[in-house]
Amino acid sequence: MASLELKGVRKSFGSTLILEDVSLTLDAREFVAFLGPSGSGKSTLLRIIAGLETADAGEVWLESFRIDPLPPGERGVAMVFQHYALYPHMSVRENMAFGLRNARVPKDEIERRIADAARVLEIEPLLDRKPGEMSGGQRQRVAIGRALVKEPKLFLLDEPLSNLDAALRLRTRVELAQLKQRVDAAVIMVTHDQAEAMTLADRIVVINDRTIQQVGPPMEIYNRPANVFVAQFVGSPAMTLVPAQLAENGDYATLKIGDGTVVETRVPRDRLPPSAHFRLGLRPEAVRVVGSGEATSKAKVELVERLGERTLVYARLGDGQPITAEDQRDSRLKIGDEIALRIDGAAAHVFDADGAGYHRTGA
Ligand SMILES: Nc1ncnc2c1ncn2[C@@H]1O[C@H](COP(=O)(O)OP(=O)(O)O)[C@@H](O)[C@H]1O
Ligand SMILES: [Mg+2]
């Protein structure tokens, strides 16, 4: 059974259209990330699902019931806000019980749910503390606990890790990944952080420009980006895009770029629209620093970033085109060096004039 279903959701604030024709189906117990830049409407969509905003058009269904006419408390949905606020004068236990008491859940049932949630979140020792006596990560877990005790069919988490410092973010990310194994509900997490979406989600929904750009498992989004936006938004550093011309006939697209390099891709030529003008998409790992014997191109180093497990080299091709390449981890390159690059056509992507992406078959 499908968990959540959105059908043609549209939303404006005043005369500004924020979301247009958003349709999506979640599987049971699926963990989905809404990924997009700040201001792309992710929180608005979450709030429409939760019932905190009303859509101008469209329907929201949860487990075969239409829920968009229902008030928030009757939807079977629990939301953890970006700026979660715990009641400071209440203990963790009281914070978690508060909503349930208001909903007139019987006392022993409230206790059972709190005990269950505390066990799942490993916050049992904290139950009698006040929010002021806990770390940011612990408070975040309590905020999730407060949603958990509602035993919802669907969890909505709005940027759950954004208030945490870097180390805690990573640890809480691991905890969230474990949590998803233990919770019998679908989860939607909003994030602008592609690493969070990549590591946690079963599927990523990329949102930009008022609408869904692509839906798919993380590696599909990474390997087969539907368009230029997705290609550049997912993956760090961003994919290099190089203006290119279709060079010759053959089963696969062969493209020539500005410095004269000819790149034989594995993108079937007959998929491409009839045009000569494209962009070649290259992730850093598709452009290696090599000895001159293996080179396809020459470049000049502008910046070297040593990341430990790999070295990123920001360089310019002969025609001035910026390109991001990878060198071995013990790279000795420095700014200004003239280097030889090998562009791996088999790993290259092609984008047409409208920005649509084309990829090698099979991968
Ligand atoms: N209540 C509101 N009234 C007017 N504009 C709003 C309101 N809420 C959000 N917006 C606008 O809608 C757009 C999307 O906001 P939001 O959904 O918060 O984006 P995101 O969560 O992706 O950062 C932004 O331009 C924001 O300023
Ligand atoms: Mg937001």
Q: Any overview of this molecule?
A:
There is one protein chain. The chain is α+β, with helices and mostly antiparallel strands and 363 residues long. The protein has two domains: 4-224, P-loop containing nucleotide triphosphate hydrolases (Rossmann fold, 3-Layer(aba) Sandwich); 240-358, Nucleic acid-binding proteins (OB fold (Dihydrolipoamide Acetyltransferase, E2P)). The chain has eight helices and 21 strands. The protein has helices at residues 42-50, 92-102, 107-121, 136-148, 166-182, 194-200, 218-223, 228-233; strands at 4-13, 16-25, 31-35, 57-62, 65-66, 77-80, 154-158, 186-191, 203-208, 211-216, 240-248, 252-257, 262-268, 277-282, 287-290, 297-306, 311-317, 322-327, 338-343, 349-351, 357-358. The strands form four sheets. Strands 6-7-8-3-9-10 form a six-stranded mixed sheet, sandwiched between helices. A six-stranded antiparallel sheet has the order 13-12-11-14-20-21. Strands 15-19-16-17-18 form a five-stranded antiparallel sheet, with no helix packed on it. Helix 2 (92-102) packs across helix 3 (107-121) and helix 2 (92-102) runs parallel beside helix 4 (136-148). The longest helix is centred in the middle third of the chain and has 17 residues, at 166-182. The protein is elongated, with a radius of gyration of 24 Å. The chain starts with a strand and ends in a 5-residue tail after the last strand. The model has no long low-confidence stretch (mean pLDDT 93).
